[in-house]
């Protein structure tokens, strides 16, 4: 997944900035940090995360409005994480535009997404595998918030979410 936005600085005209997220990696050999992650584990994480998200006070209403075919969504998200972690190349989509279309989506939704995702992978995965999921989830959160223009922090302020 490639996210882009425009960078403005004193060095010249505006130029695009890319946020290369892990889904953009080449199809082939999974990265070393994904060793031990299986399709079954990915599917278990996806199913459990969305079970929790649907019941979450903050995320549940967003998903209930936007997702009408849960089986298809779970399959798509399994493909997404398979591509991100195992470089299967199975995911083809435009998550930026899908998220841009969600009314009233804010940075807090992405913060909560990471918090809930972190709890899910810590409950289901050994530490090394949990970390592989979380490195990508945090990068995705940061990239999506930036490209969607949702970042409410003052310039230069760093944020750590669930660092363990």
Structure description:
The protein is mainly α. The protein has a single domain, classed as Globin-like (Orthogonal Bundle), CATH 1.10.490. 52% of the residues lie in helices and 10% in strands. It has 6 helices and 2 strands; from the N terminus they run ββαααααα. The chain has helices spanning 39-55, 60-66, 70-86, 95-100, 107-124, 127-147, and strands spanning 2-9, 12-20. A two-stranded antiparallel sheet has the order 1-2. Helix 1 (39-55) crosses helix 3. The protein starts with a strand and ends in a 17-residue tail after the last helix. 23% of the residues are buried. Residues 1-12, 14-22 and 155-164 have low confidence and may be disordered.
CATH fold topology = Globin-like
Query: What structural class results from the helix and strand content?
Result: mainly alpha
Secondary structure: helix percent: 40-55%
CATH architecture call: Orthogonal Bundle
The tally of structural domains comes to 1
The radius of gyration over CA amounts to 16 Å
Uncertain runs are: 1-12, 14-22, 155-164
Arithmetic mean of pLDDT: 80
> Strand fraction band?
5-15%
Q: Can you count the beta strands?
A: 2
Helix-strand pattern:
EEHHHHHH
**End-to-end separation:** 26 Å
The biggest beta sheet reads: 2 strands, antiparallel
Q: Total helix count?
A: 6
Shape: globular
CATH superfamily assignment? Globins
CATH class: Mainly Alpha
User: Biggest sheet, strands in spatial order?
Assistant: 1-2
């Amino acid at each position: 997944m490639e996210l882009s936005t425009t960078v403005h600085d004193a060095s010249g005209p505006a130029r695009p900035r890319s946020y290369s997220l892990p889904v953009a990696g080449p199809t082939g050999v999974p990265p070393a940090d994904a060793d031990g992650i299986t399709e079954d584990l990915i599917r278990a994480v996806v199913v459990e995360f969305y079970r929790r998200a649907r019941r979450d006070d903050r995320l549940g209403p967003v998903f209930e409005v936007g997702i009408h075919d849960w089986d298809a969504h779970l399959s798509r998200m399994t493909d997404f994480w398979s591509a991100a972690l195992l470089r299967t190349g199975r995911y083809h989509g435009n998550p930026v535009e899908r998220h841009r279309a969600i009314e009233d989506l804010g940075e807090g939704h992405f913060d909560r997404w990471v918090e809930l995702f972190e709890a899910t992978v810590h409950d289901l995965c050994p530490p090394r595998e949990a970390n592989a999921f979380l490195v990508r989830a945090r990068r995705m959160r940061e990239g999506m918030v930036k490209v969607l223009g949702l970042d409410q922090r003052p310039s230069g302020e760093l944020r750590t979410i669930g660092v363990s």
